[in-house]
Batch of 2 targets.
Target 1
Amino acid sequence: AQSVTQLGSHVSVSEGALVLLRCNYSSSVPPYLFWYVQYPNQGLQLLLKYTSAATLVKGINGFEAEFKKSETSFHLTKPSAHMSDAAEYFCAVSDAGGTSYGKLTFGQGTILTVHP
Amino acid sequence: NAGVTQTPKFQVLKTGQSMTLQCAQDMNHNSMYWYRQDPGMGLRLIYYSASEGTTDKGEVPNGYNVSRLNKREFSLRLESAAPSQTSVYFCASRSSSSGNTIYFGEGSWLTVV
């Protein structure tokens, strides 16, 4: 079984400040890990993914995440927040071995607010 | 670039009514999924189809049925809608050739009154 915990349902930062969204996962098999972003009334857009290659993953819009197996974490960061980053962010895990047919297990989401 | 297309985008149903959410993908993906999104709960898997001709239950299948009509289309049916099924529904498909990336549709907002 797999699970994802996102620490903090709401995160608020000032424009230009560091963005840190926390994600911890639990998986009995090697995982694939994903971050998705959802803007209001829209679908989910893939930000970045970890698929057992480099542990530091760079994504779109200046975001990156680091896979830390020892900490079972996959935190999302961005050095300088923009107003356009305000959205809801979801961390998700799937089974790298393929036996789960790519099914994703999602965290509960973190709403990022960016203040001027 | 159509990707994953869902219809309808918005729907209001009365309790007990039935309806079908349609989903089609034009990326030649084998696997397709239906998720529901509720506040504070992330997305939860309702049903999935690993390949054409197969369907399986996900985490929250009760009250739903699905049909994998062909490789492109995967529909979700509510036979007798209940207020607890008020949610946003997302269809998705998977590219097994791109690190298992899952692509999502725009969502269908369903209200059951």
Note: The interface with chain B takes residues 4, 9, 32, 34, 36, 41-46, 49, 51, 90, 92, 94, 96, 98, 101-109 of chain A (CB under 8 Å).
Target 2
Amino acid sequence: GENVEQHPSTLSVQEGDSAVIKCTYSDSASNYFPWYKQELGKRPQLIIDIRSNVGEKKDQRIAVTLNKTAKHFSLHITETQPEDSAVYFCAAGPLGKLQFGAGTQVVVTP
Amino acid sequence: NAGVTQTPKFRVLKTGQSMTLLCAQDMNHEYMYWYRQDPGMGLRLIHYSVGEGTTAKGEVPDGYNVSRLKKQNFLLGLESAAPSQTSVYFCASSRGLPTYEQYFGPGTRLTVT
């Protein structure tokens, strides 16, 4: 089955700096790679996703890159703001069977 | 639209008791999922369903059963609760191909003593 590793487990950044979170996966059959943001006590919410036929996707301050050969994908947040503070989860898998990483606690300090 | 809803929001059980968690969605989604979330471990898939009347095992199915008798509902049952099942349980749904996005419910916090 799929195994997803996520690094770092915690990330502290100054407001305005960039944040990068990296994930690796093991199953070559994985074709969908979403990123979820979860604020304390809330449900996970999708912030961006990418499919295996695309190498990069951007949505305002958030971007995701995928390297299928190396089996890794990354989340990039630019110009971080205090409201970006949350736990971020990567996931990988085919439709219906996502495997999630353990999460990254991001703290943006003013 | 309410999206994905879960009942109850909180529950405390004694070891050996049983209970059912209810997930409902009003988006006419084909796929539904049950996850558990434990500190430092992300979300782990318990069971999922690709359509009414179907269910399949996920990563951590032991100790749980599910049923999808109606398209809009997905029930998660614990027949004999154990302290190791103390967790936050999230239900999610997705439309199915070609859309992959999963929408999560608000979660149920379960404590087994």
Note: The longest strand of chain B covers residues 87-94.
